[in-house]
Design brief:
two-stranded antiparallel ribbon; 2 strands
């Protein structure tokens, strides 16, 4: 068999991407400079509403999955198989869901979630 040593290898040097990044930065800066003075407050409320909806859906999903896992782990206790990791995961999901949705509930005397009192000066 004959060796084919006549291969052409082309090495490209490092391309500078800083020009594209700079143009993207200028585009974002231009958008902010033109859009924000006229519609800034409306944009703030619109994005707040959109993120609130996303966090509410994520919180509801965490609460549904956490509640289902908690029910399964409670049923496992009656079958004499105790799964501490599963129980902790279900309580953690319920806690995250309650934090995201603002819904308070109680597990074994511990209040989880709900709206927190405002920060400020307290005597006690």
């Amino acid at each position: 068999m004959a060796k084919n040593d006549d291969q052409i290898v082309i090495f490209h040097g490092k391309k500078r991407k800083s020009n594209k990044v700079f143009l993207a930065f200028l585009g974002i800066l231009g958008f902010v400079a033109i859009y924000i003075p006229f519609f800034g407050s409306n944009l703030r409320y619109m994005t707040g509403t959109a993120f609130n909806l996303i966090f509410t859906y994520a919180g509801n999903f965490c609460m549904i999955v956490g509640g289902a896992l908690l029910a399964i782990n409670i049923l496992k206790v009656f079958g004499k198989k105790i799964d501490i990791k599963g129980f902790l995961a279900s309580v953690l999901l319920l806690w995250i869901g309650a934090f995201l949705t603002g819904a308070p509930f109680e597990i074994m005397g511990f209040l989880i979630g709900g709206s927190q009192p405002p920060q400020g000066y307290h005597f006690f």
